[in-house]
Amino acid sequence: MFFEIRMKATGKIRLRLAAPEDVPVLRELIEASARGLQTEDYTLAQIEGALQTVFGVDSQLIADGTYLVAEATCTAEGDTRQAKTPADWVIVGCGGWSRRKTLFGSDHWTGREDALLDPQRDAAKIRAFFIHPAWARQGVGSMILQACEEAARAAGFTRYEMGATLTGAKLFGAKRYVPVKRISIPLANGETLPVIHMAKRA
């Protein structure tokens, strides 16, 4: 399943599994995504607090082989990063799914629960979606989400759930995820980050 995802390309965008060497680029992408796309839903203090506390790379997802990156060979308007050659692929988005209990959070999030889920009883977790601002609303997030759902379904899961940011909830709502409850995440700088626990049946 993941071999097909890794080799799949749609137009100028392709998906592959994230690798440990992608982490520095992913950190920059996540910061750019949060600061560039979430200002309509969160204050600057909430965004900066989230980057310190909960947003970031989850290396467990990479180790589990369930984190994907979307790459493009061209540069979108507003994307200041340049490919070294026309054949080079630049990471423009990321997202994954998990068979572990943790609903959200990066390596530095203290509320992690890495126990494995039972596909017959539990919902797979849809995790850590971030899109570069220059590539927003171009189908990148939808492409990653579809691949994650297909992979989780192949692993035996029949339900999905997530802790969606207020920004991400707009995409996920359009993909038939329904709100379950609101969650308020305490941040290191004293702010709180409201997110929405959302769920969907396969």
How would you describe this protein?
Strands 1-2-3-4-5-6-8-7 form an 8-stranded mixed beta sheet. The protein is globular and about 45 Å long. The chain has helices spanning 2-7, 23-37, 44-53, 59-64, 140-154, 168-174, and strands spanning 9-10, 13-17, 67-72, 90-98, 124-131, 159-165, 178-186, 192-201. It has 6 helices and 8 strands, in the order H-E-E-H-H-H-E-E-E-H-E-H-E-E. The protein is α+β, with helices and mostly antiparallel strands. A hairpin with a 2-residue loop joins strand 1 (9-10) and strand 2 (13-17).
Biggest sheet layout: 8 strands, mixed
- Binned strand content: 25-35%
Total helical segments: 6
Structural class: alpha+beta
Overall geometry: globular
Topology:
Layout lengths: L1 H6 L1 E2 L2 E5 L5 H15 L6 H10 L5 H6 L2 E6 L17 E9 L25 E8 L8 H15 L4 E7 L2 H7 L3 E9 L5 E10 L1
Parallel strand pairs: 5-6
Antiparallel strand pairs: 1-2, 2-3, 3-4, 4-5, 6-8, 7-8
Helix pairs in contact: 2-3
List keywords for this structure.
202 residues; single chain; eight-stranded mixed sheet; globular; alpha+beta; 6 helices; disordered N terminus
Give a short summary of the structure.
Helix content is 29%, strand content 28%. It is an alpha+beta fold and 202 residues long.
